[in-house]
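S1.2 Input.
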Amino acid sequence: MGLRLSQDDFAREIRAAGDRAGLPNDANKRLVQRWEAGAITSPRPAYARALEMVTGLPIESLGFASVPQARVSADGQGGHDLDPAGAIAPPTPGPTSRPAPQGNYSGVWLSRYEYFSSGRDGTFTGLHYVVLLQHGDRLTVRSLPGSADSTLTMDLAVEGNVVTGTWSEQTATGSYYRGARYFGAIQLLAEPTGRRLVGKWVGFGKDMDVNSGPWELIFQDASTTKATLATYDRPPESE
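S1.3 Output.
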């Protein structure tokens, strides 16, 4: 309901997320119905990861029990196998391997960006509390619904202390922007403490011009439990 998707649409998004992650699945409407009815309390790892990618929330916050953290790794013969007993096998280094992410960024963060509104002839600040989930070198970001009247999402990749990806914001129909959707690219640098990501966004404005501005994510809490998310499901205080 929060994503405004039918059960068929949600199943389609789960399949697409699995394909993007390299973990194909066969999600369908019936499976979604079983999840919602509580008939399945602990989805398989491939489904759990896709659920987190689509919703932007940790699996425990969706009403499921914790899921064994099984991973798929290269089998050395051109294919991929599931690691036995949920163990995570270290990847074999290669000439095209990316550096391992420094630390884990999962948790609740405060998102703050600035933009210029030509219609209002002024600079404004956008604030959201967001849930950031890390899977290897991929980061998914989704705003908590009560933290702002718009929905913010990001799809990011980590390489060393550089975070690069795309952002999208769906404004509320009753806001100044009347339900418009904005999107663009973003690049951030992680401070050595791992508690702050700072960089810039770019996106299209009027008359096909490209705008940009500062953006930062400030760490708030490493927990992603339902109770923690409820604490931050409110508008951030402006400084």
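S1.4 Remarks. The mean pLDDT is 81.
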